[in-house]
Design a protein that fits this description.
Strand order of the largest sheet: 1-2-3-4-5-6-8-7
Strand content: 25-35%
Oligomer: single chain
Largest sheet: 8 strands, mixed
Number of helices: 8
Distance between the termini: 37 Å
Order of helices and strands: EEHHEEEHEHEEEHEHEEHEEEH
Helix content: 10-25%
Number of strands: 15
Amino acid sequence: MSETLATTKLNDGRCLRIRTAGVEDAPLLREIIVAAFANRPALDPRPSALDATNESIAAMLEHGFGIIAYVDEVPFGVIIVSIADKQAGIHHVSVSVSMRQLGVASAMIDAVLAKLSEYDVEEVHLVAREEFPQVVDWWKRRGFIEYGRVSPFVKLRRQARISFQIPTAAAMGDFGKRLAKLLRPGDLIIAAGELGAGKTTLAQGIGAGLDVEGSVISPTFVISRIHRAKGSRPGLLHVDAYRLSGWEELDDLDLQTEDLVTFVEWGTAIAERLAEDRLEIDIQRSPEYALESDDEPRWVFLTPIGERWDDLRAQLES
């Protein structure tokens, strides 16, 4: 049975829905994949996606899952994911030509990474083509690191999301203190989540763990606030990017981050340029609870990006 993974709006305002796909969807997946790859420039060697069959697609789905993206309930995008030995592979990323440049691919990758948090997966791998350096850069902006080339193929990988269920607001603060033990000067944390999800509570826990001066409160109106450390730990630069429209406005603040831990609320798609390596945190309310209390359980999803965070999973589990 298919599962709806995400429903959102595209850049042009149309409704995007992403669902899981099973073996029974193999003909539809193949149709979208072949059509998308046929609209790309001819390559040598020929992309294997162009030779996909219903049977080969079904075989891939037996060892993982697929997703289909619908725009106003018309299917336009596909990704197939393989899973083996704590490794996930991303294959046949396809968006119909009429839907490109609208955010479909980004939304599908976000849905895949979120879904993989349900599996015992530590790394996500894919192969891109060096003939398309802009595509390789697109993957790198989404946290993938190049780890090898066998011309014309570029091998890329990133860590999978690490998930924790946090039962209460106090536990969120405690989780921040736990995370603070791992932090060092220059670290960048970008926190996402709806209003009231617990971003500031997490920042307060990190501030307590770093033993910084002053009360850590959301700096919505002043944009940024520095909390100096009382001891030998780094201080905390707390940024609220809610009122900022893009990187340029954040850059205008001329933030000095080298000697501090930088924690940016609402910083997705704005603050990534502050550091090549970063830790992205997405806080989501548990859907089975009514959205009434600050003390209801949350899910915290950590996405380590860059070599700085390569051993985060092991450190958190130790």
